[in-house]
Amino acid sequence: MRARKSHPQRPSPHMAAVAALLLAAGESRRMGAAKALLRWKGTFLLQYQIRQLLQAGVSEIIVVLGHDADRLLPEVQNGPEVTVVVNPDYRQGRTTSIKAGLRRLSPACAGIMVLAVDQPRRADILRRLVEEFEQRPSAIVAPEYQGRGGHPAIFARSLLDEMRAITEAKQGLREVTQRHRAELRLVPFETPEVLLDINTPQEYQDAMEQYGGPEARPPNQP
Fold first, then answer.
1. For the segment 6-22, what is each residue's pLDDT rounded down to a tens digit?
2. Which residue from 7, 9, 62, 94 puts its CA 20 to 30 A from 79's CA?
3. Would you state the torsion angle of the CA atoms of residues 133, 134, 139, 141, taken in this order, to the nearest 10 degrees?
4. What is the pTM of this model?
């Protein structure tokens, strides 16, 4: 199933452009099936998230693939705002995918949103985070729900060198966030959807029942 062409809300010349890294390179071992191809609101998670990011008005989307890249590539929506990067080192951890995506980042962007494909987010949530970053720039902007930090986070371009230096041993972007905790601005949301992270069949089933639509089914079924 191919996603239809979406038309993003382009940032005005006076706004800080925010690019998005969409991470979809993992092996989905705990799920037992490709998470990027799980059904979600009438489409696949991968297509859904690209569509929502475009509608949220990000300046560009860099989709990072790895495991099963040949299978996932046809499901990536084409368009001038979308770039695909295949990370050959994906088995070495998520940090390699983040760094692979950062290497393709446009020099025009002022902020970098990092979102995993198993963290589906509606366009209105993403748009609000983009607007918060544009209107009140901080080193890091992220959502929270009832005191719990969620995803995605937007990192200012000033942190780019630190992002490029992350390692699995130091927990990737968490190290950057901890180092700049005083400059982290949490944006409160009234929905626990900002905490959603789907890793197992049970988490997927629960998420489908609460957020994903009527087509819920175990991921090992056709």
1. 334 444 444 469 999 99
2. 94
3. 0
4. 0.87
